[in-house]
Amino acid sequence: MEADSLQTSLAWLHDVLRGKIGHGLDTRVLEGLRVVHAEKGFMRFDFVVPDGVSDVDGNWNVGALASLLDLLGGVAIFSFANRVITSVDFNVSYYSTAKIREHVEIESKVTASRGKLIHVVVEVRRKGNGELIAVGKQWMASNKLTVAQLSNL
């Protein structure tokens, strides 16, 4: 029996947060991330921008923010499709800066599924006033293999 895709995607995310899998950069970028709500294809997170991802001016580094958008988009898509996925198009729009230790809310949701292609939108907003900081839009292609099947190869 195949594992529930939502539980599998959340377990993967928690393993990345604990540094058990992925790269050190992934763990650093997601440090302190908290899942507020999760369902298949939709997730909401609470996040305080950690010290380790600042630029020279004390702002959230745009590369670190883009990495977070990519990772959380992938988690939402996996929860929806239960498949190994590959980015085929990734676009980030930055609307405002965020300072280190600033509190933000992140929402990641699957917005389209077209055959093997799945689209996700990840929005980052300032907690309190809801000001938009960044939006990531991503198309990913799903592989026919599940994570369990891939690990058995």
Automatic annotation (TrEMBL):
Residue span(s) of domain Thioesterase: 58-131
Keyword Lipid metabolism part of the UniProt annotation: yes
Subcellular localization(s) per the UniProt record: Cytoplasm, Cytoskeleton, Spindle; Cytoplasm, Cytosol; Mitochondrion; Nucleus
Keywords: Acetylation, Cytoplasm, Cytoskeleton, Hydrolase, Lipid metabolism, Mitochondrion, Nucleus
Primary subcellular site in the record, as a coarse category: cytoplasm
Subunit structure: Homotetramer. Interacts with PCTP.
Name of this protein: Acyl-coenzyme A thioesterase 13
Organism of origin: Hibiscus trionum
